[in-house]
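can u do me a favor
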């Protein structure tokens, strides 16, 4: 199943005409500091957000009060889009995750007009919604059924879209802390496992990229 953990190739800046949004950004920008809540569950504001800079975490809390991170979004990604399907209230928290996060606020009418005027953009939005539903369903299944190392391996595999080859490099926007939150473990666990895979010659890992060095060895433990 492709694009399960991330949709980092979906960049609205490459889909929308920049001249259409340039002036709109100037008058509809929002700024949040790390940890500030953008919206709460049950909020009924009919708005959609575009990440212009920084990161946004979408999350819920389980019955024990533990945070469950559904998505971490970066520049060029939207959220709050389910109102296009008739959702009247939010079902999650949206929290600024970057030190300073800049958002562009889009009204539902503005989005519908853009989708009507740009067929490619409209198809992108509906595909985005469908993929996110599948992604969250699989994440919950993996969190329940697999241990921390298996969840990390699944995360790496899905970054490569299940089609990785030796010496292939993929870009990613996630810190080790981001990855830990997404797979439900500690940053120390992610760091330890990534270092182990690097020493074994399986991968090269940096803050912005992962290169697969030994597909055969890596595949044996998946």
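np, heres the sequence
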């Amino acid at each position: 199943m492709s694009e399960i953990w991330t949709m980092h190739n979906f960049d609205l800046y490459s889909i929308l005409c920049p001249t259409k949004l340039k002036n709109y950004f100037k008058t509809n920008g929002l700024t949040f500091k790390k940890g500030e809540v953008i919206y709460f569950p049950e909020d009924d504001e009919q708005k959609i957000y575009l990440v212009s800079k920084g990161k946004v975490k979408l999350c819920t809390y389980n019955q024990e009060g533990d945070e469950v991170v559904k998505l971490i979004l970066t520049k060029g990604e939207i959220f709050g889009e389910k109102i296009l399907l008739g959702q009247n209230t939010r079902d999650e928290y949206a929290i600024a995750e970057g030190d300073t996060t800049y958002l562009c606020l889009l009204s539902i009418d503005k989005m519908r007009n853009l989708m009507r005027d740009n067929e490619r953009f409209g198809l992108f939005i509906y595909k985005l919604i469908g993929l996110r539903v599948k992604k969250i369903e699989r994440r919950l299944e993996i969190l329940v059924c697999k241990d921390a190392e298996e969840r990390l391996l699944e995360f790496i595999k899905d970054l490569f879209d299940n089609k990785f080859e030796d010496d292939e490099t993929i870009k990613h926007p996630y810190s080790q802390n981001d990855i830990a939150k997404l797979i439900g473990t500690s940053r120390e666990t992610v760091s330890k496992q990534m270092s182990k895979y690097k020493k074994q010659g399986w991968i090269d890992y940096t803050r912005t990229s992962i290169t697969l060095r030994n597909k055969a060895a890596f595949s044996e433990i998946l």
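Confidence is low (pLDDT under 50) at residues 1-10. hope that helps!!
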